[in-house]
Design goal:
The protein is α+β, with helices and mostly antiparallel strands. The protein is 26% helix and 28% strand. The chain has three helices and nine strands, in the order αβββαββββαββ. A seven-stranded antiparallel β-sheet has the order 1-2-3-4-7-6-5, covered by helices on one side. A hairpin with a 7-residue loop joins β2 and β3. α1 crosses α3.
């Protein structure tokens, strides 16, 4: 074990943790402000978070769940999750060695840690639409019908390093969720920094 390398690695991880926490706090502020402008929405509430605690020293993953309430409802009407994955060997086989943010939205319940992952997405029933939006449908659901946010279950993936300013959070997370809950989310118009994929022989591949 090299002392200088360990010191430098610990310094990097500590600083990264501070920056990620500040980003999540800013994200919630922007999310709450924007979604309150959606007709019929009463509040957005941070519910809980969960982390991969297989190591007592470093978390590889963190998922943070938010509940969205209609004005007339006591229980949540929609669920948004932000999962940060700092490293995962199986995901790295698809996207390379880079940390990721998974943005996940559902009308049916909150999201568990690693419920959506690229390397198991197809097996878990997710379908890729227009290269970037993953949707999970009921078995007999009409795929040609435009979904509203009241019956959506979808996810998309962004490199963590793409977020450097509040505008980045707005363009790559807040705006897509807002569109999903208002006019409808068109994957063709989603920010180009959101990762694009293709499926070859039932395997997920990153688009160049």
């Amino acid at each position: 074990m090299n002392g200088e390398n360990l010191f430098n690695a610990a310094t990097v991880m500590y600083k990264a943790g501070e920056e990620i926490e500040a980003m999540l706090e800013k994200l919630f502020s922007l999310l709450e402000q924007k979604l309150k402008t959606v007709e019929g929405i009463r509040k957005v509430e941070f519910k809980d978070d969960n982390a991969d605690d297989t190591s007592e020293w470093v978390y590889r993953d963190l998922i943070r769940n938010y509940y969205i309430y209609k004005k007339s409802a006591r229980n949540p009407s929609a669920y948004l999750a932000i999962q940060i994955k700092l490293c995962d060997p199986e995901e790295a086989e698809i996207v390379g060695r880079q940390p990721l943010i998974y943005v996940q939205f559902s009308s049916g319940g909150d999201w568990a840690l690693d419920e959506f992952l690229l390397h198991i997405a197809i097996r878990e029933g997710f379908e890729l639409e227009d290269e970037c939006l993953w949707q999970r449908y009921d078995e007999d659901e009409d795929r040609t019908r435009k979904r509203s946010w009241n019956d959506a279950e979808c996810a998309f993936v962004v490199p963590l390093t793409a977020f450097n300013t509040p505008e980045d959070l707005q363009e790559m997370i807040i705006d897509p969720i807002y569109l999903l809950m208002t006019t409808g989310l068109d994957p063709k118009n989603m920010d180009r920094r959101i990762l694009r994929f293709k499926i070859e022989d039932s395997e997920v591949r990153l688009m160049p």
